[in-house]
Fold:
Amino acid sequence: MAEIFGILNITTDSFSDGGKFLNPDDAINQGIKLLQEGADWLDVSGQSSNIDATLVSEAEEWKRVEPVIHYFVPKGVRISLDSFRPEVQKKGIEAGVRCINDITGFTYEGERSFLKPAIEKHPDLKFIIMHSHNKNIAKYKSDLTPEKVVRKIQTFFRDRRSDLISFGIPEPSLYYDPGMGFFLSDDPMVSFQVLQELEILKLEFPQLMVGVSRKSFLGNVLGNLPIADREFATLACELHLLRYKIPFIRTHNVLKLRQAEKIWNLCQDRE
Structure:
């Protein structure tokens, strides 16, 4: 079974649910719902990374996620903090976060000396290295093409793996997210090329995480399908991830994925 990271965006401008969970009580209730639906992790974000997002201050980002972290951590819930800012990452780890999901692949400028003592104190810490064609929030302009995207991702992962291991982070603590949609390109075929070559990436980076939920590339190939109408496309794509035994999947709709996963597994030949 895949480990599912349920997306909990505590932002004003996330592309599919911005503004819905800014109130701490609403965010906590959504987190409870995701867990009840079968999420293994809550992937919590206080800074949107979509193409039209605005950067908020680090103080505001932390203010948004802190109540949720402090509510769930004492209950033993595994929290992944979706943040690329070192100071926010540090506060999250100190508050009990056990996974840092960094859309810059830990390339954002800032002091990261806290990583070594953090991993020494908390050997169960996980670090998600995400590939993107730019430095932080998604951008339109990209030079990635279907022909070279997987090679570019492989090179990026190798570089970031080497760098993080030099901080004392053991390789089994590293997860790898190829990035999808505008993190790769506004050309949807770039994202589909990654999905077609998942086996190549997984061979070298077996701890692969993929998030396709409601992404632009799905809507674009279906006649600019609105975000609210992308659930079937998302699920079709997530079934593809199950087929290739991707170990970690990040999604908004945990219930649909868990139900589909159960049916998918029951349909497989056990011979």
